[in-house]
Each structure stands twice: as C-alpha cells, then as structure tokens.
Amino acid sequence: MNKIMLFAHLRDEAGAEYIELQAEGKTVADVKELIAEKYNLTKLDSTMSAINEEFAEDDEVIQKGDIIAFIPPVSGG
Amino acid sequence: MNKIMLFAHLRDEAGAEYIELQAEGKTVADVKELIAEKYNLTKLDSTMSAINEEFAEDDEVIQKGDIIAFIPPVSGG
Amino acid sequence: MNFEISKEPINTQAVIDKVVQREAGAITTFIGTVRELTHGKKTLFLVYEAYEPMAVKKLEQIGNEIKDKWAGAEVAITHRVGKLDITDIAVVIAVSTPHRNDAYEANRYAIERIKEIVPIWKKEHWEDGEEWIGNQLETVAYPSGKPEESDLNE
Amino acid sequence: MNFEISKEPINTQAVIDKVVQREAGAITTFIGTVRELTHGKKTLFLVYEAYEPMAVKKLEQIGNEIKDKWAGAEVAITHRVGKLDITDIAVVIAVSTPHRNDAYEANRYAIERIKEIVPIWKKEHWEDGEEWIGNQLETVAYPSGKPEESDLNE
C-alpha cells in the first residue's frame, strides 16, 4: 500500500489528511486522476507532486512503500 | 565665544573634545585654517563641517553662539 | 537545527542567534507578519499548514543553495504553522555574511525560494469567508501554472 | 524614540518592536556586527564615537527620507557607541512595510545613508596599532574626497 498525502484545499475536499491506496507500478499522473475522480478534487492541473518528500514528475512510476504527496501552489512566507 | 567640536583623529590630534574660540563673523574655512595651524590638525581637506548640527559649506559665516563641528569622513554602521 | 517548522510563536532572537559568527559583519533578518489589509480586504486571521518533513528538507535545500551562492553565509529559517492573528510572525529568515550586500541579497533569495518550493500553505479568513491562497509570488510568473523543473531543483 | 545612540548593548528585539504595525506584512532588520577579519587583518576590538545630537538628527532625517520614498514604512535605528568586541552589535536597523520588496530596499537605503551622513566614527584596534577609519562606503565613491551637497541633504 501507498500513502497519498493531501494538503490545503485538497485535504478539505477529500475530508482526509491522507488516503491509502495500492499505487505500485502506477505513474503519479495515474494516481492523480484516480483520486481526483473518487474524491472530486479540483485544480489538480496546478498541483505539483512529490514522492518521498521530493518533487516528482507526472510520469514517474511509484514503487512499493513510496509516499506520494499532492502539493497545491504553495503560499508560505 | 563659539564652541568648536572635534571628533575622531582631530580630537586625538588636538587632545581636546572641543575648543572655545571667538569665531563670530568668520567663515567656516577661516576657522578650519586657524585651528589647523594652532593644533597641527591633519586631513582637513576631507573634513566636512557643521553649524548647529547641520552640514555647512566652507563659505558660511558664523554667527554669535553658533556651535561648529569638524566632521571627518564618517564610518558608522 | 537551523531549519524548523514551529507550532509555537517564533522567537526572532533565537533564530538570529543561530547565525552569529566571528567572520560576519552583517546579519539580515526578514520577519514575515500577518497583515490586516490585502487589496483593501480585511483579514481576520490566517491558518498555515505544512507538509512538515518535506518543508524542513526544502528549507535546508534553500540554506545550501545560499551557501553555494554567497561564500561564508550562515542561514537559519523558522516557519510557523497553525492559527496566526494580525501582526503575528509567520516566518523568520536570518542570514549572516562577511559583507552587508550579500546578507541582503541572500536573505531576499531565501524568501523568494520559500514562496516557490517549500510545501506550506495559508488559508485566509475574512469576515465573509475563507480560502486557501495559491501561489502569491510577486516577482515570478509561471505561465505553465506551476514552477518549472529548473525552479524546483536549482 | 525610534532613532537612538546607545552606550549600552543594543537589544535587537526592542528595535524591531518599534516598527510592528497592523499594516505591515514584512519587517527587515540589518544588524551590523564587529567582524574579526578585514582583508586578512585581525581586529581586536573597535571604539565607536558619535557627535550624538547631530547623529540622532541625521538618523531621523534618514527615517523621513524612507517614509517619503516608501509609502507606509516605519523605521527604527539604534547605533552603539563605546568599545565593542568581535560579534558585538554596532547598529540595528528595522524597517516595516506592507510589502516585502520595499522592506528590503528601504533597509538597504538606511545603511548606505548612515555611512554617508551620520557623524559616527570607528577606531579599529589591531595587535600592531590603531586607526580611525574613514569613509568605508563599498558602493559610492566621492571623487572630491567628501560627499556632495546632494548626498547630504537628499
């Protein structure tokens, strides 16, 4: 299983801080599409992704145990 | 009488924090020359002047009671 | 630990103390505070959320970038999370360098990078609603809607 | 009193507190510290001397110049006098503004102006001697050997 972390509006929309999902072998884009549909997530086209706390491209393939995070445009500072 | 304030190397050279002098009617340049000679002050060509705590030009004429200051290049900060 | 996410109010002096060094002639700090008015709209309070472990890593990355770009620089950054009221401190960046120009430039670089790559988000609360704020960079536009690869890993 | 000459060690936080305002989103501080090495020469300690009443007036002038140039800015500056050891604080400049770019620029302006017009002098003490340091501006040259009228009263 893989842990999918959600933040900001995505967390509010999903009503969860993270989702657990079998994502091994899927790409980041696959997972994005999958959870977007299931949880009615919005603005995913401007959302970055991370695998194991490093930014990742849409076509990266997820490995066993990887932690995925979907990262809306940041607004710290 | 007028008070002539000295700072930094000028203070060291004169061995005094200030000098009292009858400067009424003289220009700033006059006073500079006068005390330079008397106290062997150096680097007066790069020294600015102030009258009553405001920068003054060499040709300004000193009034009764004015406080003069000779201000070497500053190095605060 | 020079790079932190804090649930408690930030002690500015404690952040500054981390960058004091005998070789430094200048320390700059940037203190980001919660402003009441933005474009005439009144903010009641903010909530900051962070992806903490990644945010700390990205702050460290910014520190390393600065040390690469400005010789002799020391950097410390603490970012707050949770509910913040008007004038509360959201972030403190302290940079020390031998010469002052570097301290200003490196500090400014740090805040710009925070706004690009550190996973922290703020939700503004007004009298008539609330919203998660997206990218608010004042100096960089992302035509593609997101930072380019070069921005993220510079 | 936002502009001070101090015989005692400067409390950075106290200077920062003077510029906190509900309209500010950014506070920058510049902390000038005594550096051990300058061009490879080892400083033991410094002595700062000021023409105090005029120095305070000139600091106030700088504050007014900043308020004219950057809308909504608040400024506080404290400069130390007396004997200072390595890493001691010589000056603290705090500037708050609604937007961060202004806070950096206004702060930098303040330190440059201090080095132009505020009657404060430092004497460096090395192992092999001592000397009053003249104009040390890193960014401005005075071909005439002194600031022009326009520099002094801008």
Automatic annotation (TrEMBL), chains A, B:
<dbReference type="InterPro" id="IPR003749">
    <property type="entry name" value="ThiS/MoaD-like"/>
</dbReference>
<dbReference type="InterPro" id="IPR044672">
    <property type="entry name" value="MOCS2A"/>
</dbReference>
<comment type="similarity">
    <text>Belongs to the MoaD family.</text>
</comment>
<protein>
    <recommendedName>
        <fullName>Molybdopterin synthase sulfur carrier subunit</fullName>
    </recommendedName>
</protein>
<dbReference type="InterPro" id="IPR012675">
    <property type="entry name" value="Beta-grasp_dom_sf"/>
</dbReference>
<dbReference type="InterPro" id="IPR016155">
    <property type="entry name" value="Mopterin_synth/thiamin_S_b"/>
</dbReference>
<keyword id="KW-0547">Nucleotide-binding</keyword>
<dbReference type="Pfam" id="PF02597">
    <property type="entry name" value="ThiS"/>
</dbReference>
Automatic annotation (TrEMBL), chains C, D:
<dbReference type="Pfam" id="PF02391">
    <property type="entry name" value="MoaE"/>
</dbReference>
<dbReference type="InterPro" id="IPR036563">
    <property type="entry name" value="MoaE_sf"/>
</dbReference>
<dbReference type="InterPro" id="IPR003448">
    <property type="entry name" value="Mopterin_biosynth_MoaE"/>
</dbReference>
<protein>
    <submittedName>
        <fullName>Molybdenum cofactor biosynthesis protein MoaE</fullName>
    </submittedName>
</protein>
